[in-house]
Backbone:
């Protein structure tokens, strides 16, 4: 029996499907609406693309565009990376992750080339 027939086929990174589409929609809602709307004093960024950079870099452990090719990043990201980035963004919203520290790490990686491939 084929993988398609058993429902075990695996989508390629960046592929679209009902599950992937929901994941991408969650990412966009989180980074374009929820995080900017939740901005508070002490947060180093307000703009959606900044939240996206910070969360994707943290989820990759390096500069995201050195980790996987393609744009837009949320569509090109492997599902596991996107899931980690979403979870981290949700932790930021709940006050369980330090956005300032995540931003500093992202900027440091970009400035020094740490973890760049």
Residues:
């Amino acid at each position: 029996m084929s993988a398609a027939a058993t429902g075990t086929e695996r989508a390629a990174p960046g592929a679209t499907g009902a599950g992937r589409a929901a994941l991408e929609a969650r990412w966009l809602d989180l980074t374009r609406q929820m995080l900017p709307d939740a901005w508070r004093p002490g947060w180093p960024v307000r703009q959606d693309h900044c939240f996206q950079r910070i969360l994707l870099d943290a989820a990759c452990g390096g500069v995201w565009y050195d980790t996987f090719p393609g744009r837009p990043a949320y569509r090109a990201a492997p599902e596991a990376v996107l899931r980690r980035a979403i979870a981290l963004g949700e932790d930021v919203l709940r006050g369980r992750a330090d956005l300032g520290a995540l931003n500093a790490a992202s900027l440091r990686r970009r400035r020094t080339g740490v973890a760049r491939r």
